[in-house]
Amino acid sequence: MWDDMRAVILGGGDVVFDQRVRVTAPANAEDALNVPVMVDASGLDAEDEVEEIVVFADMNPIPRILNYRPAGAKPLIGFRLKLQQATPIRAAARTRDGVWHVGGVFVDAAGGGCTSPALAHSDPQWERHLGEVQARAWAPAADGGVRVRFRVRHPMDTGLAPGIPAFYLESLAVRDGDARDLGQIDLFEPVSENPVFTLEVSPSAGSRSLCLTGRDNNGTPVLADIPLSWRQSALP
Amino acid sequence: MKRTFAKIAVVGAVAGGLAVAAPGGAAQAAGGPTDQDILKDAETPGDILTYGMGTQGQRHSTLKAVNPDTVKKLAPVWAFSFGGEKQRGQESQPIVHDGTIYVTGSYSRLFAIDARTGDKKWQYDARLPEGIMPCCDVVNRGAAIRGDKIYFGTLDARLVALNKDTGKVVWNKKVADYQAGYSMTAAPLIVDGKIITGNSGGEFGVVGAVEARDAESGELIWSRPTVEGNMGTLNGKESTMTGVKNATWTGDLWQTGGGATWLGGTYDPETKSLFFGTGNPAPWNSHLRPGDNLYTSSTLAINPDNGEIKWHFQTTPHDGWDFDGVNEFISFDLKKEGKVIKAGAKADRNGFFFVIDRTNGKLLNATPFVTETSWAKGFDLNTGKPIYNEDKRPPNPVDGGGASAGQGKPIFAAPSFLGGKNWMPMAYSPDTELFYVPANEWGMDIWNEAITYKKGAAYLGAGFTIKPLFEDYIGALRAIDPKTGKIVWEYKNPAPLWGGVLTTAGNLVFTGTPEGYLKAFDAKTGAELWKFNTGSGIVGCPVTWEMDGEQYVSVVSGWGGAVPLWGGEVAKKVKDINQGGMLWTFKLPKT
């Protein structure tokens, strides 16, 4: 199984198992539709820049979960995912030298997370809220990173629930006030409904807000401004 | 930790909100059909780039390998299932380009298929909201191709552009509000870098419109409402009003006047005119809207550069029978008394076959193509107006006489509202100089009722029951001579015909039947030469093209459309037909 995952998801390239890539998740998924996961590869970053993090779950019917390219951010991402059954959840962090550093945890799950219809569809008007964003950024901690969390309203249909085609956000990107790329996320179907992400970004000193853009596989755009409130004085 | 997020931005499905779409401008993308290729589609049998097999919509191929001598050997090469549980109403016409077939399916799906093997290249399933309101089944009639993009309309009234090689969405534009009853079922038309579409929603009091967008960016260039009093736009500003407000409509009824352009249009490069048919006026009860109700139940000639109406011809003024007028207008050269007239023809829902001068909209001839047209004795060729049988207009419910209070007296009228010919496109052969019209023989009991407009609700003000006119057949494929209006031959089919027609230089006419057969006829005599059972009813449009030196024929099979939904007594005759969703491809065996 691992050999297949390595070939399909990581392609070629050297692979090492590395405890510095920390994947945190509950040992048992209470809610298979919303399994919280935190991937933190910042232990690696000190010596070699992380260019991309690939997250996957070996036993999921759709193993790919997301790719994250933290161009102007810490190699850290928090999110929630759907699990169909007990599985390892792995994160592979590719450093500049092309080596994949793989960490992971095993999560037990009762199952069914990928083949259930989204809860959103209990409301026939779900489409009216599609792409709405809620977000907040916090003032920098001692090490200078700005923690930002955002939620995008989207059913994230996997295409595995009867009669409902795959319908999911496929890209999200955060830029700073100078339109500089801070981080890009490729999302796949197993990311939970109404995805919530936590990142730690480094916007330029002059940035008064962050810009979140993205779209789903039907071309629906996502667009939101996330104010850095502590940089916005009462009067301009 | 504070868990509440400040709600700081709410941005939903904003049209054009992002820079992720392709760069704007009419730049021609490499590797796909150009505007010139699209205009010359009818002359290039190696591909099918347009709905109608040419922008004029003649559905004629110059291929001859399959002909009355060889057609008996025509055999399937492969068949492709649309899969899933969505097996109904496959009214599509395939597009063929560079070894790939692009075909739309019911429920707003688009498939790219290897034309040689039938292997699927990719599939796009639009995620439709639960509240879509397609009046007449969840159909789609086909895609459009230009450059590296393939386009189609969805049931929630959106226009989607996808990369033709990957199936990835390039852009997705909301065309209208599906919750007001709009949808999009027709194939888009591409002319000179503009993608031109109509809208659907004729039974919900929408206002019909023709719109042109930049094919690269999807940005709106012009819009032309079809009901007088409504304002058009050009480059983001108001342009001109359609017609003259209140000239043929009373009060504010023009704001919910119907005239949906739900079948799309054709384009004639010789006169540089778009031809769009417009649907029935709303509501059906004609006593609520005195006047001709322009430009409903008409054909409009439109300038593709700016959306201005060049001329109009109204086939059913003051329509009281839902005769609609969307039927395709096909440009052709009418050779009569030694002259060649730039003409166009339309077989209307109202049962008359119109031949019109396409340079000015003047009526040249109007003849019935069905056995009974009870509503009118004929047309006055000088005025272009029908000679009504006033006693065959459904009476005003105010006068009473109906089955219950508020209902008008029922009358029997023919054709029925499903029309002497409905959406299914006819074909024209320049070889035989005949039109091949898929007609139906049915009438209806119809009565008017009181109605008021409510957004998103059906806006009819009428009740009806469809009845066959004959015991032994409803459908009739008829070859019509446009010079005289005479019917040269006919083929009678037990079930109503609901699929498009194809004709070839090989002296053949192809069409499908609800019984499941794709059939080939001798184009001159109407003799049935070949048939093949596709397993479900055919309501799509057959096409033919050449690949690797061989002639191929393709058709989608999958019963559905308006007949089983609205067909009254007729629906009982087709209730045993199984639904489906399959693309069949045929060729002659190699010798």
Automatic annotation (TrEMBL), chain B:
GO-annotated molecular function: calcium ion binding; oxidoreductase activity, acting on CH-OH group of donors; pyrroloquinoline quinone binding
SMART domains: PQQ
Pyrrolo-quinoline quinone repeat domain span: 50-364, 468-553
Cofactor(s) required, per the database record: Ca(2+); pyrroloquinoline quinone
Example of a GO cellular component annotation carried by this entry: membrane
Cofactor, free-text remark: Binds 1 Ca(2+) ion per subunit.
Region feature Disordered, mapped onto this chain: 386-407
Cited SUPFAM superfamilies: Quinoprotein alcohol dehydrogenase-like
Name by which UniProt lists this protein: Alcohol dehydrogenase
